[in-house]
Structure formats: C-alpha cells, structure tokens
Amino acid sequence: MKPLTKITAGAAIASLAVVAFATAAAPPPAVATTATTPATVVEKLTGPDAPNNTWGRWDVKSTDLGIMWDDGSGHVLTAFGDTFGNSWTGPGGGAPPNGNWRSNVLLRSSDADLADGMLFDHAAQDPQGIAKQIIPSKKINGDEITVIPTSGISVGSRQYLGFMSVRQWGPPGMWDTNHAGIAYSDDDGETWTVSDTRWENPDGHDPFQMQAYVQKGGTIYVFGTQNGRNGPASVAKVPAQKLLDKGSYRYWDGSSWSKDESAAKPVLDAPMSEMSVRWDSYSKRFLMMTLSGEDIILRTATSPEGPWTPAQTVASSTDYPALYGGYFHPWSKDGEIYFTMSQWNPYNVYLMHLRIDRNGTIIDPNLVADPSFERATTLGDGTNGAWGAKPNSGIDDAPAAGFTGDHRVFVRYDDGWRDIWQDVAVQPHTRYQLTGFLRTSVNSDNGYFGARTVDGTVIAEAHFVSVGAWTRFTVTFDSGDRDQVQLYGGVWTNSGDIWMQMDDVALVRAP
After folding, report:
1. Does the domain made of 388-509 have the CATH classification 2.60.120.260?
2. pLDDT tens, 365-422?
3. Distance separating alpha carbons of residues 492 and 416, to the nearest angstrom
4. What are the backbone angles phi and psi of residue 115, rounded to the nearest 5°?
5. How much of the chain exceeds pLDDT 70, in percent?
6. In the Cβ-directed half-sphere of 302, how many Cα atoms lie within 13 Å?
7. pLDDT class for 91, splitting at 50, 70, 90?
8. Is the model's pTM score more than 0.70?
9. Where is the signal peptide (predicted)?
10. Which pLDDT value is given to residue 307?
11. CB 149 within 8 A of CB 81
12. Any idea what DSSP says for residue 82?
C-alpha cells in the first residue's frame, strides 16, 4: 500500500474494475514533510535491476509490501501484494489483461547476511515455474477486487497468513474491505487453505481489517486497523495454538482484556496503516513500524497495549515519494533493524536498514542531506545540505527515473572529470561507511566513488569502469582529525560521450 500516496493496503493494485485492464488506484501528490530519513537503502528486492532477478525467474516484474516472518525451519517467508508480470510498464501498479496479475505471491529466503541484501532462493510456483497466486481472489470490482496479505507467523510447523478481502478501491488512502481472514499452510507455504476465521466488516469500521501478528511466549498479539489508512490501531491477544479460534481472542478495552470485540479501544490514535510489530530482545520492547500520514514511523512499548512512545521517523516521503509499508525482517538483531519499504514509483520493494539503541531509539542515522535527490530540482555548490556539480550535470526528474522514487543525479560529458559532491559534517576519529547506487554508459572506463577532504585530497574511494544495472558501492574510511568530509561520485570523460548516474547515497557510522 502506499501512504497517502498509494492507496492500497497491501498492494497498490488493480483498481477500478478488472474489465480488461488490471489497474491500481492512482496516488495523490506526495505531501512534503520536514523530517529527514535515518534509514538507508540496502538493496532493491524485486523487479527490474534487482539482484534477485524476480522478473526473469518468476515473472515478478512489479509488486509491493514484502511481509516477512520466520517459518521455524531456517527460512524467511515473504508475502507480496498485487503482483504483475512481463507486460507491466509502470510506474505504479496495474497492467494490461496479459499482465499476469496475481493478488499475492510468496517467496522464500535462507539468507542470514542482510548487510549486502537478501537473496530469495525459492518461490511458490505454478507448473510453468511462475510465482503463483497463493490465496484466491475474484478480481471483480465491487465484489472482491483483490486479496492482500497483511501479516504472517508460524506456530510449530504450520504457517499462518492474515489477509484482507478488498471489495473496491476508493479515493487515495481509502478502500472498502469485505472481511479480514486467515489462511494456513502445512507445507511451508506451497499450498494454502483459507480458514473460516473472519472479521466481517459490514459497516466499514471493524478495527481488525488489517492485522499484524507478534508472538511473545505462548501468546500471539494481533494488532489491527480499519480498512483504509485513516483509522486508529487496536490490539487483541490469543493463545498461539488457537489462532483460528475467534472465541479464544481477548480484546483490549482500555483497562482489561475482553471477550467482546466491540469493546476494543484504540491503543494508538489515527492515522495508522500497514503495521508490522516485533518483540525485540535487544531493547526488550515491542517495536511497531507503520505508515502514519506520509511517512513510515517507529514506536516502542514495553507492553502491547502501551503506552507507546512518540513517533520516530524511519523514512520520509520527501526522500522516498509514495512510500508505504515498512515490514520488519524477523532476523533483525542486536539493534540492527532490517525492513522492507515499498514505493508506488516504481512499484517495487526495497530492503532498508536502521539502528536502534537499547531504549529503542534510532541512532547512527544517514548523515547525507537529500540522499535520494528528491528534495531539489537543481544542483548547488555542495555546501549547507546541497549537492554540488560542474556543468553538464543535473537531476533527472522523469517519473521513476531513479533507483528509488522519481529522481536521480547525472553527469555527462566528453572531456575531463565530472562529479557530484556534498560536504558532510562528521565526528573526528570515527569510522564511517559510505554507500551509493551507480550506473554508467557502456563506454565508461574510469570512475570513482568515495570521500575526500574539502580541499580535494582523497581519503578513500572505490574505482569502477562500466556499470550496467544499478550497483551498490561501499567505501569504509576513518575521519581522522576531520570534522567534515566531501562525498563524491564521478567519471573521467576522455573516451567519448560518457555518463554516470547516482542515487540513494548514505553515510553512517561503520558497524
């Protein structure tokens, strides 16, 4: 789904009718926020230019959400929302009738080293080897346009997947659901059975239409929101072995746990949507990531009913327009938090990273101003939070022009050194990690990405030549006695017309 920018709760997808064209509801203009983005991009997980090659392997060219859980047997299962195949052109969700539209798909990973990305090694597939739809949907507008996963969990060897049956998409940030339900699988996600357990939504105000699961001990806490992105959050609890038994659920009524769902009182005020909750043994707190307004935010609490801390911005829509989701990777540990983030443009999913301390406070944020080149349309002199550039450089702002979002920066010339740079304040005698995503023209034969002093002396850099698909480069260095460094990426253009593009630059303390 997307914040006020994508209107589906779990997958921007198909909108008006299936009639001969599966299309998603268009997002409204992004609302700028002043918040910065502490999180950094690790990898594009799905779609074109993604190292996983989900397009070539399983015809997953565009998708969203990326809801992850530990299957209990050494894997992470990841459920995606509305998914489109080869004929998708984007940006945004939707594809022609031959677009291989699936309302949901499931991929599997055993990759435990997330610092360099997350490798998917398997998909639940149809006989042709395509990632298959795992939960059926009618795809009839006004009846059931799609079925979107909202949360997953394993209990013993059984996998459970919470979902919402979407009747129809409405204006941006709004949609109508028929009910929330639970499907289960006893073969690690290959086949699924839709249970009779449901939360019906006759008046459009049921508080558990989008659910998020978190287990602590033998209890599963079920957090819920209404359909759409404008409601509060409530919580229930149920013994893990009785997840399908609605009679065993108890709903927080503001002072105690009640058998009566109608007595449920919000534990967090609106707007709440696309929640992901985990019990974090490092901080000994519940962590909740959610879309709230335009941004993905983080709250913490020592009890599921709260009180919950004030919101900390995780990712700003100003840096990542039309972002949504925000789902924890279950193998995050020791304060290293990995999560998925979706963007309407280009309607795919990214692996993100941030750090927290033992109080659940975000630390070691990205120090780069305007890391994804979305906050400006022109380049400056590299000081005071601006990017600097020589002539024949600029910001591409075509829709979905960037590695993420709409913008990317470029240099293009045929004679001499051309680079993009920014002066960044640092702490002396501290190790830092610089990352960024680059690609070049085929004839590029000499480029550099790194950190230097403000007077131009190289501290550390990575060398590259021709870079085809978007590629992540990493440079680690010590700041020495400096309190400022200059980050840069550029190419020597002495071998004909050469260009370089750069996006999503980050500077954080090295682990």
Report:
1. yes
2. 999 999 999 999 999 999 999 999 989 999 998 877 899 999 999 999 999 999 999 9
3. 5
4. -60, -30
5. 94
6. 2
7. confident
8. yes
9. 1-24
10. 97
11. yes
12. S
- Phi, psi at 482, each rounded to 5°: -90, 150
Structure tokens that stand for 137 in this block: 């949907």
Six token digits for residue 36: 């910065």
pLDDT tens figures, 486-507:
999 999 999 999 999 999 999 9
- Compute φ and ψ for 12, nearest 5 degrees: -70, 115
If you average pLDDT over residues 333-359, what whole number do you get? Answer: 97
Q: ω before 91 within 30° of 0 (cis)?
A: yes
Report the distance separating Cα 317 and Cα 374, nearest Å.
9
In the structure encoding, which two tokens stand for residue 193, read together? 């059975």
Q: Residue 263 — φ and ψ, nearest 5°?
A: -85, -5
Hey, what long-range contacts does 112-117 have (CB within 8 A, 24 or more apart)? 112/331, 114/42, 114/329, 114/331, 114/332, 114/336, 114/338, 114/351, 114/353, 115/42, 115/353, 115/511, 116/42, 116/43, 116/472, 117/42, 117/43, 117/45, 117/51, 117/351, 117/472
Of all residues in the chain, the percent with pLDDT exceeding 90 is 89
- The fold for domain 40-363 equals Tachylectin-2; Chain A (2.115.10)
Q: How far is CA 488 from CA 86, 436, 481, in A?
A: 36, 10, 20
Q: What are phi and psi of 242, to 5 degrees?
A: -120, 30
Domain ranges of the chain: 40-363, 388-509
**Residue 175, Ramachandran bin (φ over 0: left; ψ between -120 and 50: alpha; else beta):** beta
Distance CA 238, CA 223 (A): 11
What DSSP string runs through 222-261? Answer: EEEE-SSSSEEEEEEEEEGGGTT-GGG-EEE-SSSEES-G
pLDDT digits (tens, 9 = 90+) for 443-456: 999 999 999 999 99
In the predicted model, what is the mean pLDDT of residues 303-321? 97
13's tokens: 């997808």
Strand partners, 200: 179
- CA distance readout (Å), 261 to 89, 178, 228, 252: 43, 17, 19, 9
Neighbouring-strand partners of residue 168: 176
Q: Which two tokens stand for residue 289?
A: 């990531």
- State pLDDT tens for residues 373-385: 999 999 999 999 9
Enumerate residues 6+ apart whose C-beta is below 8 A from 210. 9, 10, 150, 164, 180, 224, 225, 226, 227, 273, 274, 275
- Do residues 446 and 405 lie in contact, with contact meaning Cβ atoms separated by under 8 Å? no
